[in-house]
Amino acid sequence: MIKILIIGGGFGGLSAASQLCKSGLDFDIILIDKKESTGFLPMLPDCIGRGINPEFLAYKIEDISRKAGFKFIRDEVVSMDLDKRHVLTKTQFLDYDYLVIASGSETNFYGNENIKQNALTLDSVDDAKKIISTLRQNEFDNFIIGGGGYTGIELATNLRVYLDKVQRNGKIIIVERAPAILGPLPCWMKNYVAINLGDLNVEVYVNSTIEKIEGRNANLSGGRSFNNALLIWVAGVKTAGFIQNLKLEENPQGRIKVDEYLRINDHCFAVGDAAFFAYNESPLRMAVQFAITQGECVALNIMRSIKGRKLKKFIPGDLGYIIPMANNKSCGVVFGLNLKGFFPTVLHFIMCIYRSYGLKNKLGIIRDLKKRTFTE
């Protein structure tokens, strides 16, 4: 029986596993993840401002595996040998015929142990719960957000909505080391977001860094300092350590370069945040839609490889992207159209509900949104 290992229970890994199970072929499919549940990461900031119950963003991988028909092992990958087709976890040694690396990404502290020890993150459902619990203690006057990308913007607007709802004062500051927020996104979007942040009284410092955290004091470049401050770090991501230890061509985030078929070699593929895929001479951004379709493509290519057929090139279908902001003044590009305001907010939630796992979770998200977003 052909043995297929999948590392990672996120969108890409689950997509590949599900498609392989639907093939009807006799595979031994094993998915490995160190977490018990898969988290719906795109809605984590909404737990803070919109009051979405974090429990509705988690779904047990074991339940998915039982329904789909693959095996789930809760374990952590330590290393792998792609030539000998071996994977070493913390508890066992596994071989494979085909491997899919779909291990996603994790917070990048860029080697700064001071920030790592003193900052909260927003990588998981548990992280969202910790932030909410910390906010409810009502102990901070200043809220520093490290990073002015997608997540930093969403987080800042959700923090403002939360503070307004509980009638608390608080200064919210985004610290971005680059010359502008939102990196390579178009100027109209950056300007629109900047105006909205200003309306929400969110301060933005570009060309700035967080130099040191001392207790509850945050010291920024340029001599700025904030007392009684909470730091939430969302300034970047990197791949898992076992990937970065591989002697392969990678981008600065540690994403592994794959070919047009998403291959690393004839028996190993990578998808989602773990893969660095170039399309039309540009790197494909990290996005849920691409992780899912890459998982489907890899499943098909594994089946084609087994049958000795020509592999299928991965051609991404880009529906667009949205920057959802908690005061419903969102913006984005969908099917080539520039959108602003409430409509892209609605589109964001429609797609999130559609892609979330489990009827209970879908209904729970709808209920919380109806209660706290569309009726207030």
Task: Give an overview of the whole structure.
There is one protein chain. With 376 residues, the protein is of the alpha/beta class. It has two domains: 2-34 and 75-105 and 239-307, 3-Layer(bba) Sandwich (FAD/NAD(P)-binding domain); 113-237 and 320-372, FAD/NAD(P)-binding domain, CATH 3.50.50.100. It is built from eleven helices and 27 strands. It has helices at residues 11-22, 46-49, 61-68, 113-118, 125-136, 150-165, 187-199, 241-244, 288-307, 342-355, 359-372, and strands spanning 2-7, 27-33, 37-39, 58-60, 71-74, 77-81, 86-89, 93-95, 98-101, 106-107, 142-146, 171-175, 202-205, 210-214, 217-220, 225-226, 229-233, 237-238, 256-257, 263-265, 268-270, 275-276, 278-279, 282-283, 320-323, 330-334, 337-341. It has a six-stranded mixed beta sheet with strand order 5-2-1-9-21-20. A four-stranded parallel beta sheet has the order 13-12-11-17. It has a three-stranded antiparallel beta sheet with strand order 6-7-8. Strand 23 (278-279) and strand 24 form a beta hairpin. Helix 1 (11-22) packs parallel to helix 9 (288-307). The protein starts with a strand and ends with a helix. The model has no long low-confidence stretch (mean pLDDT 95).
Number of DSSP helical runs = 11
Total individual domains: 2
Task: Please list the strands of the largest sheet in the order they lie side by side.
Answer: 5-2-1-9-21-20
Please estimate the helix content.
25-40%
Q: Please, what is the average pLDDT?
A: 95
Radius of gyration: 21 Å
Q: Distance between the terminal alpha carbons, to the nearest Å?
A: 56 Å
Task: Describe the main β-sheet briefly.
Answer: 6 strands, mixed
Give the low-confidence spans: none
Describe the global form.
globular
